[in-house]
Write a structure and sequence with these properties.
The strands form four sheets. Strands 6-5-7-8-9-15 form a six-stranded parallel β-sheet, sandwiched between helices. Strands 11-10-12-13-14-16 form a six-stranded mixed β-sheet, sandwiched between helices. The protein has a two-stranded antiparallel sheet with strand order 1-4. The chain is an alpha/beta fold and 663 residues long. α3 crosses α10. Helix content is 60%, strand content 11%. It has 25 helices and 16 strands.
Amino acid sequence: MKKISLFSDQLRAVWMLAFVALALVFATPLFLQPSNMLNVLLTAAVVALIAAGQTYVIILAEIDLSVGAVLGFSAITTASVISQYGVVAGLAAGLAVGALAGLINGLLVTKAKMPSFIATLATMSIFAGLTLQFSQGNPVKVTDQVFLSLGQGNLLGIPTPIWIMLVLGMLFGYILARTRYGRELYATGDNADAARLAGISTERVKILAFMISGVLAATAGFILTARLGTAQPTAGTGLELAAIAAVIIGGTSLAGGRGALLGTLVGAVLLAMIDNGLNLLNVSPFLQSVVKGAVILLAVFVDRNSGVLMRIFRTGPAKAAPASPAAGAGASVPAPVLPKVAMISVVGLLVVGAGVTTAVRSTDDGGAGAGQKSATLVISTLNNPFFVSVGDGAKDQAAKLGVNLDVQNANNNDTSSLNQATTALVKKPGVLLLDPTSSEAGGSITVKANQANVPVVAFDRMPDQGKLAAFIGYDAVQAGKNGAKALCEAVGGNGKVAELQGLLGTSVARDRSEGFKAGMKECPGVEVVAVQSADFDRGKALDVTTNILQANPGITGIYGANDEMALGAVAAVKSRGLLSTIKIVGNDGIGDALAAVKSGEMYATNAESPFALGQEVAKIGHAVASGEKVEESRVLQGKLVTGGGVEEFCSYLRGIGDTATCK
């Protein structure tokens, strides 16, 4: 009988999962709550499905970087078709898009003889671009209840996405382990030349693997769209890396020929568990990426040094004793004891930890008002100075009010925002302070918070559904109008200008662009000759502006929908010696922009004082958690700051405690 090693490729991932779970059991009493366990599996579902398809490809020693873009493209296609022809047609269209994308990738690798890394890197860009072109950067809302049940429904108390993950995991796991195609896949990944000589059509095997990857990415898109209630053009951004990480952690070799779906599913759950645990423990959002990276490195190290574990856990004397004549040839060797002891110990500790968790939880639940001094802030990104300042303002005010503020960074990703907010609700904070990555994602989060009886204070973007305790934010449309007005004044009411838009598919980018276009209609002497996206990024704005200047040498003005892009434009214009002739206007009022306005490199910025916004959010959140009545909606207006007004504005910032912006 074939022996099963406790440290086989897939079971190593199970061990890692067990030890991480054990650590979290003793680190936080919230981890083993049934609702939190379901949150972990729910969070893992999307990545698990993408990673399942990626497993087929990686067993072939190939890679598919396009799965995130395929998810977004199929999601937009599905939502659009559902609105016109119904849910069956929509699902069929989404699966067809996934299969077609996989077919294209497979043909590029097999027929065009392109390395899969390069081929799928290119198609990732193509599919992402087609998604934005098809949707024009706008999300597509879905109202069909049958479709929404794929992401929001329950069966036997377990969310539907978890059932989908388990059923498809078993199906494609069976195909991989028990069918002729699975055997051909392993043979091709292990040695393609030998497989070809054995009569296997290796090209067919590879094409079908890429198609499976595309179909499962499309299925993940169904789940994500149904959870959010809308298809986002940027929904799959970054998920390809998470999927690859899950496959590697699960024991599938990048060299090909080895791997199984069980390990991949465990790897996806492990990543979700790490995210969940770090959020529950209020670990800094900047350090969370460090921890996840370390886990991936550990998994790769174990994969490359698998013999080390076997040597550590191997028992018995260094030299075998001579066999006695009495011992038969078939005498069995005693099985290693240490692995069994370790496994029993882990299970025992988990059981003990569960008991401790239950006891602590019952004590915590009895503490009246425990949640009133806590708040969770889920912020769209901490990779932008504006939102960093918002977070600083919120932390400053929370400290003054004696509130324990947990800050989570969604990295401009709807999926991360939804998952982090769902985890935060397990902790039952006194209030959820929410900066949605989009209005649609914010709506889904608000509905979940309403169901959990946790009040929500939203800011910066208004959620499209659910009941809010309060909203506060700057008017993004008016910000665009202010920018247009300032640019019109800067160029004297005549000339040619360019617009740098934000991250396509996000609501703030759409609103600011809409406002800018409306404002420019009131300045008929100025022609907008170029409109390009620079993703709210200074470096990208530098490159985009350089290209715009090359194509439009007569430009006299540039509007950046945020200061980061405006500063990138400054660098491009400055390199050409055109600062005296091209006027630049930004939006946000960050420190570097105020300095540029003061020096004359920028004409103006529509300053919005993010630090003050963060303070107000924390104040309102504290009042809501304390049961006080607050203003339900407050819309703030930015202030156009030109060279002469910088010092006055900086004095205001210092007066409210913001010592970082104007250094």
